[in-house]
Amino acid sequence: MNYIKISFGIFLALAASRFIPHPPNFTSLIALAFYVPAILGIKFLPVLLVSFFITDLFLGIHQVVFFTWGSVFLIGIISKYFLKNMISRLSGSMISVLIFFILTNFGIWLLGFYEHSLNGLILCYTMALPFLGNNLIATLLYSLIIEIIYNQYIAFQRKY
User: Fold this and answer.
1) Residue 38 and residue 55: Cα distance in Å, rounded?
2) How many domains does the chain have?
3) What is the H or E stretch that residue 59 is in?
4) Mean predicted confidence (pLDDT) in 107-120
5) Residue pLDDT, tens place only, 15-62
6) How many Å apart are CA 38 and CA 34, to the nearest integer?
7) What's the domain range around 30?
8) What is the pTM of this model?
9) Contact at 8 Å (CB) between 139 and 30?
């Protein structure tokens, strides 16, 4: 029963940040993709991917979706290597933003949104820089919120 409750909470957190009006790429997606498997375990990675899929059904399935879902999967897998302390986890979440940026924009270039040349690849990444900024700020903000909640939970557990 806890798995279902937690899964529903993950879905609500992701859906809220994606459905509430926000600047482009200013969502909890990367922070959740990193922290959910890191804190709750890899068994919750499918929940995150299904939640992402469900919200994409409402927001629109696009050509780059497999690159976005793939980057979320990869971020979830690597999160276990950043569990040592808060600084390590925050660093891991920022690295996750770069992974998302590199993979999704490579997908955009690969799918032909830009000319298949070195200049097209450079242009693709250059044009995506404003989205990277939003993603970095959002991920840092949501990561700090998750860290505060997580640390409060750990402190509460130690008391009782």
Assistant:
1) 22
2) 1
3) helix 45-59
4) 98
5) 999 999 999 999 999 999 999 999 999 999 999 999 999 999 999 999
6) 6
7) 2-159
8) 0.93
9) yes
